[in-house]
Amino acid sequence: MGRGRRPAGTYWRLDPDLVARRARRLRVERLYSWGLGLLAWSVVGLIAAILGVIVWQGAPAISLEFLTQPPREGMRSGGIYPAIVGTLYLVGFTIAVALPLGVGGAVYLTEYARPGRLTRLIRLAIVNLAGVPSVVYGLFGLGLFVIFLGLGTSILAGSLTLALLILPVVITTAEEAIRAVPRSLREASLALGATRWQTVREVVLPSATPGILTGIILGMARAAGETAPILFTVAAFFLPRLPVSIFDQVMALPYHLFVVSTQIPNMPVELQYGTALVLVGLVTGLNLLAAAVRARYRRARRV
After folding, report:
1. Eight-state DSSP code of residue 146
2. pLDDT computed for residue 5 by the predictor
3. Are 251 and 238 in contact (CB under 8 A)?
4. Who has greater pLDDT, 131 or 161?
5. What letter would DSSP give residue 112?
6. Exposure of 138 by Cβ count < 10 A (0-12 exposed, 13-18 middle, 19+ buried)?
7. Residue 56, domain extent
8. Of 60, 164, 203, 292, which one is least surrounded by beta carbons within 10 A?
């Protein structure tokens, strides 16, 4: 009889203790799976409930007049058109400032900075800045841009403050996207005679663009929904006209929602929820637009 062969007519016997341990392990894994699934669906259900209340309460206020007219009668009637335009101005100028600074900082940290104490301190500072409360950014913007630089309460001061607010998010996501580009692509470009900057510009950044757009999406969502930074730097309590320059104040949806919810007595509830619904829809629309651009760029790169 060869080594390791069973005698004819015999069968392997399973250890009962081993079978019991495996059964217990499977039950524990199923319990964890059900628990995690319950937590995930609880979060989804909570978000759906919040959105459902906003839509249910705010839908009656949505009309052409509400979206295209300025507020009237102490903001108890009319629309929120100046606040919508002001929010779009702020988001646009904020991204215009934060995008080159954030991507440039990420490229430096990833491609040019030498590993060392200074680089570690820079990354630590970026992580810490991401956790600073937004009201601190508002006070900093008030002191630096509004008072020290003399920009006043303006679109420019508010956009610069919001750009500082979202800059850590943009830098972090852009750096991770650049790091995800395979090293072999860089080496192939350098082997063909390209300089480091040409490699970064023609190879690394195009490959990392989808990840960079993810950071832009997160930054836009946060910039559009912040109240404290614009409270000190740009937001106007009541300004029914549209801005004519970057040095003008504007109404903005987050601050307008705060005003109509807390500062105006006997404010119709549907107008409050209608403003919240427009803000949620605006943020969702901006995110979907950026996501569509990212998906289209990915398809173009694959072709």
Report:
1. I
2. 57
3. yes
4. 161
5. I
6. buried
7. 18-61
8. 292
